[in-house]
Design a protein that fits this description.
- The structure holds 3 protein chains of 3 kinds.
- Chain A is an all-alpha fold.
- Chain A is 76% helix and 1% strand.
- Chain A has 2 domains: 2-464, no CATH class; 465-529.
- Chain A has helices spanning 2-15, 18-36, 42-53, 58-83, 91-103, 107-142, 145-162, 167-181, 207-223, 228-238, 246-268, 273-288, 301-316, 318-324, 330-341, 350-353, 355-386, 391-410, 413-431, 436-459, 466-472, 489-528, and strands at residues 184-185, 192-193.
- The radius of gyration of chain A is 23 Å and the shape is globular.
- Chain B is 62% helix and 0% strand.
- Chain B has helices at residues 21-40, 56-78, 90-123, 131-152, 162-165.
- Chain C has helices spanning 2-28, 45-61, 76-84, 98-106, 142-151, 166-178, 190-198, 209-218, 241-244, 265-280, 282-290, 303-320; strands at 34-38, 65-69, 91-96, 118-134, 157-160, 183-186, 204-208, 221-226, 252-260, 293-294.
- In chain C, helix 2 (45-61) packs across helix 10 and helix 4 (98-106) runs parallel beside helix 12.
- Chain C has 2 domains: 34-125 and 254-320, D-Maltodextrin-Binding Protein, domain 2; 128-244, 3-Layer(aba) Sandwich (D-Maltodextrin-Binding Protein, domain 2).
- By secondary structure, chain C is α/β, with parallel strands linked by helices.
- Classes of the chains: A mainly alpha, B mainly alpha, C alpha/beta.
- At the A-B interface, helix 2, helix 3, helix 8, helix 9 and helix 18 of A face helix 1, helix 2, helix 3 and helix 4 of B.
Chain lengths: 529, 166, 325
């Protein structure tokens, strides 16, 4: 404990220096901007700003880059709530209830609760990194292909729960998303799959391309339909209170705590845990709610839970980077690039050899979250006012912003055309009452699930049952030495992660399907009587 | 988008035995997509010894989607549901045109010309548009984008048409 | 006849004017920003080198060099775009062993040939390749490793960061030299592959030194040998493959600058001079050393030397790598 306090003191002394505070603020501001602009990805921005950081001291450079990363998490929820355009996988869920709230004139409370939830999650996750960063690393290493596959299956089950309507339709959308995710080169053999020799498809469909199309463009096209003009004006007149009421806060508080807990754990897993954090939180909130039907129609818990989980995961995903030197995602890979450019070799020894760097970053995360809260709460008023801009001027602007955003990801005009095609597809989906959110989740989790399944099967030489027997194997067979005494509880638990996750998936799908069967029967009975 | 003229609830058309046209045609379309995906991945290698080949998963999920689509279509036949909704023409056309125009123009003509023209084309998609107002806002947006993306965010976007630079 | 003569004269004059323009162009060049395509993600080893050298080159050339990351298909997407770009000296590419050599062996239907569709500018750097294994992998040194993987060919797992990645190519060579064909477990990039190696889910891997120094020094994985003629200052305790008994395994991950075919030689010379000067810059040398990179000797920095290197490498990889679907 003494050591942690002294470490934190060191961290704050580094992070609170005027230069580093300034860099943290710059990073947070740029991140917010990037997050708010639809399509402009965090990866692209961090990449562009990387050369600027060459001239900075390494700690300052990393503080700024980290600021952009979590700043973008705050900003991204703004766009999801206001105009229903999720900039990344984590914001898809926020868009569901956040935008529904905005349509009811409650954009202000939605934005505010997202900021408050994110701040709380950021604080807890920062403390968690400081206290338990090193031991938690073991969890990251215990997850192999079989565990990730099971986790992704669980994630896909969450997607079913996301759906407002028919379970069958939701599953169909997930499968469509899975199919879309398979476009591009096969990871194991390099074979081109369903890419039709289009070079831009060789690496698959980008998330931004599909999300902008299905959410951004499709929403615009639908809003242009005759008759929807009056609905939009209604929204603009309805705007009430900017800040959440006491009732809102009371309702959201437990959701924020649960979201933070889930997000913190999932964020540690470098192979895509952070992706499903917000989905998991949403599913949890919907399942334990007394009124699950209100989800998707503007339930504030549907914003508070996922947003907290998202931000907590964004913070704890730094753990593998800081303790192992292994980047869990593309933005962190850029930070590793920044470290190497400054002559710091990322690895497990960074924490001992460069304590001021690691602890300075951790302390700056907390300061950055505080700054973001202070920046974002007053901004709520400005954002809500933005909703009063007449839609006839708003929609062409969104089209242009989205187009620039998509183009900037790979500098590829084809991506913009593809997004347009997905816009039309999304319009068609809306007309047939198919929901785009499960599709997007299927697309995000698809590659993770398929790749990990294939990895697991490769390593097990096709006999996937080893992953199940491993859990109940006699203890003596587990260690080459047969030294049973050396076995710890962790060794037992490790083998059981994937069967447990799959079991949980099974239970969840049963829970998801049962009520829908029951309600169908209810409807039938109603009709008969 | 040809199925825009489907039967509405009251109408006794040729397809009136379909209880939920929205689901029925949606399911059929998914089956078509699935069949297309199956065809597109049919030339890929299947199981490679003890593990999946590149073609295994796409074909597996195409088949699954085909059956799910079939299930949705059958549900649409048997249970009551909403009729098909009407599709707009003007909105989708001009928004798509604006996106296409952006993709074609951005490399040769640069951001300034492209952003403004795309804005104006998209604006044509609504009958509420007032032209003078749209032109002014379009110009302001173009200026804002030209400052924001290349300068503030440092993205490698070319501002002016290529022939002017050379 | 006179018409023909006039026409000939016109062609000659026109040609001379064009030639004059080229000369003038070469003297003024560059008059605007140059785009350097990096066919890999920002922050990766090639990108870091490109940004480092690009910054210095732009100081010499007096115009900014903009890095454009065009990722996809093991870097061949970006290389294809560069091969089709205008050959006016304003588009160049930072290619590497994969895009400009091994891709020829891996993708038979590739849209470009690195030997004939590019003008070589200069070799920029080489990063040593290290043979790595998980911490508790039984073999203690490279000799034991070779014996072990030969004996357990059917049960060992080799990790790589995707088809066409440096780790895929260089371990393909290692397996070829040893004479085995083990199961290759693909990962989406070097980070996840390293995570699996540290976590003990896979047995061995090959990767460039930049990515592995931290883990090797911390003892979370072990390094058997380094595939260069000399030991590397970043990992002084790791023997070379020659010392460790596998002299046939020699390879480095190199990066080099190329221009599209037909870029005027005068412009290539200017770019070459700027690149060579950048490699003599103290800051660049220091950073490259931090990264574990070798800077080519002056005689290796000429366009001709790079052209020869590409030819040799293409032949070498064609011998050891099988085409993929």
């Amino acid at each position: 404990m003494q050591e942690i306090l002294s470490n934190l003191a060191l961290g704050f002394s580094v992070a609170a220096s005027p230069v580093n505070l300034g860099l943290c603020l710059v990073g947070a501001l740029v991140g917010t901007l990037v997050g708010v602009l639809p399509g402009i990805g965090t990866i692209a921005t961090v990449a562009m700003l990387l050369p600027i950081t060459f001239g900075l001291p390494p700690v300052g450079a990393l503080i700024m880059l980290a600021g952009i990363y979590y700043g973008a998490q705050y900003g991204g929820s703004t766009t999801s709530i206001l105009v229903n355009i999720p900039g990344e996988a984590g914001s898809v869920v926020t868009a569901l209830d956040g935008h529904a709230m905005a349509k009811k004139g409650r954009a202000g409370p939605a934005l505010a609760i997202a900021a408050i939830g994110s701040f709380f999650a950021g604080c807890v996750a920062t403390v968690l990194i400081a206290l338990l960063g090193a031991p938690l690393t073991k969890l990251a290493l215990a997850f192999g292909p079989a565990e990730y596959f099971s986790l992704m299956v669980l994630g896909l089950i969450f997607a079913v729960v996301l759906a407002k309507g028919s379970v069958l339709k939701a599953i169909a959308m997930i499968v469509l998303g899975l199919l879309l995710s398979m476009v591009g080169s096969d990871i194991e053999t390099g074979a081109s799959r369903m890419a039709f020799n289009i070079p831009e498809l060789a690496d698959g469909l980008g998330f931004a391309t599909v999300a902008m199309g299905l959410f951004g463009f499709a929403e615009i096209i639908r809003n242009l339909d005759a008759g929807s003009a009056t609905n939009r004006d209604l929204v603009q007149d309805k705007v009430t209170g900017l800040m959440p009421t006491a009732k809102d806060l009371k309702e959201s508080a437990p959701a924020i705590v649960r979201g933070t807990a889930l997000g913190s754990i999932l964020g540690i897993l470098p192979g895509g845990g952070a992706v499903i954090a917000s989905f998991a939180a949403y599913t949890l909130e919907k399942k334990i709610s007394k009124n699950p039907r209100s989800f998707g129609h503007g339930n504030i818990r549907g914003v508070a839970g996922p947003e907290s989980a998202n931000n907590a995961a964004a913070q704890t995903s730094f753990i593998p980077l800081l303790t192992l030197g292994i980047p869990p995602n593309a933005v962190m890979a850029l930070m590793v690039g920044a470290m190497t450019i400054h002559g710091i070799i990322p690895g497990p020894q960074v924490m001992q050899k460069q304590p001021e760097l690691v602890w300075g970053m951790i302390a700056s995360m907390w300061l950055g979250n505080l700054m973001l809260l202070i920046i974002n709460l007053p901004l709520v008023g400005i954002w809500v006012r933005l909703l009063r801009v007449p839609y006839r001027l708003m929609f062409p602007s969104i089209v242009v912003f989205c187009a620039i955003g998509i183009y900037s990801v790979n500098n590829a005009p084809t991506d913009v055309v593809l997004a347009g095609i997905f816009g039309l597809l999304g319009y068609w989906l809306i007309k047939h009452d198919f929901e785009p959110a499960p599709l997007l989740l299927g697309m995000v989790l698809g590659p993770l699930m398929e790749e990990n399944l294939r990895r697991a099967m490769l390593i097990a030489r096709g006999d996937a049952s080893v992953y199940f027997w491993r859990c109940v194997q006699p203890a003596g067979q587990r260690l080459p030495s047969g030294d049973i005494a050396a076995l710890t509880f962790g060794d037992y638990a490790k083998g059981c992660i994937s069967p447990m996750l799959l079991l949980l998936s099974f239970v969840l799908i049963v829970i998801a399907i049962l009520p829908s069967i029951r309600s169908k029967r209810d409807e039938v009975f109603v009709e008969e009587s | 988008m040809t199925d825009a003229t489907g039967p509405s609830p009251g109408k006794s058309g040729l397809l009136s035995f379909i209880k939920s046209p929205q689901d029925f045609f949606g399911g059929l379309a998914l089956m078509a997509i699935a069949a297309f995906a199956y065809w597109a991945s049919s030339d890929l290698q299947g199981m490679r010894g003890f593990t999946f080949g590149p073609g295994t998963a796409p074909r597996l999920f195409s088949a699954l989607l085909f059956f799910l689509g079939g299930g949705i279509a059958i549900t649409g036949l048997l249970t009551d549901g909403p009729s098909l909704q009407k599709y707009g023409v003007r909105g989708p056309f001009f928004v798509s045109l604006a996106i296409l125009a952006f993709a074609i123009m951005i490399r040769p003509l640069g951001l300034v010309v492209t952003a403004f023209l795309s804005f104006m084309i998209a604006a044509m998609g609504s009958d509420e548009t007032k032209w003078v107002e749209a032109a002014i806002v379009g110009a302001c947006l173009t200026l804002f984008c030209s400052l924001l993306f290349p300068y503030a965010l440092g993205l490698p976007l070319q501002l002016w048409p290529r022939f002017l630079i050379q | 006849m006179t018409i023909l003569k006039n026409f000939a004269a016109a062609v000659l004059v026109g040609g001379a004017a064009l030639a004059g323009a080229t000369v003038a162009q070469a003297q003024d060049y560059p008059t605007r920003q140059i785009t350097m395509i990096v066919p890999f993600a920002a922050g990766g080893p090639t990108d870091v080198v490109a940004r480092l050298v690009g910054e210095q080159m732009s100081k010499t050339l007096g115009q900014p060099i903009i890095i454009e990351n065009v990722v996809g298909a093991g870097g061949t997407t970006g290389a294809t775009r560069a091969a089709r770009a205008a050959n006016d000296g304003y588009t160049i590419i930072m290619g590497h062993m994969g895009t400009h050599a091994a891709s020829q062996a891996l993708y038979p239907k590739l849209a470009y040939d690195p030997r004939s569709d590019f003008e070589p500018i200069a070799l920029i750097n080489g990063a040593a390749i290290v043979v790595l294994a998980k911490k508790d992998f039984p073999p203690k040194n490279l000799k034991e490793f070779v014996e072990y993987v030969k004996k357990n060919e059917s049960s060992v797992n080799q990790a790589h960061a995707g088809v066409g990645a440096v780790s895929y190519i260089t371990c393909g060579l290692l397996n070829g030299v040893i004479g085995i064909n083990p199961v290759g477990v693909p990962f989406q990039g070097t980070g996840p592959a390293m995570n699996a190696l540290v976590g003990g889910q896979v047995d061995y891997m090959c990767d460039q030194i930049t990515n592995v120094v931290g883990q090797v020094k911390a003892g979370t994985i072990k390094a058997y040998a380094i595939a260069t003629p000399e030991r590397n200052a970043s990992l002084p305790d790791v023997p070379t493959t020659t010392e460790a008994g596998l002299p046939g395994y020699q390879t480095t991950a190199w990066n080099a600058l190329f221009a599209p075919k037909g870029t005027p030689p005068a412009l290539v010379a200017k770019l070459n001079a700027a690149a060579a000067k950048a490699l003599d810059d103290e800051k660049v040398i220091a950073r490259m050393k931090d990264l574990g990179n070798d800077i080519p000797k002056p005689e290796m920095r000429t366009p001709a030397a790079l052209g020869n290197l590409v030819k040799d490498e293409v032949d070498k990889w064609k011998k050891f790598l099988k085409p993929v679907g």
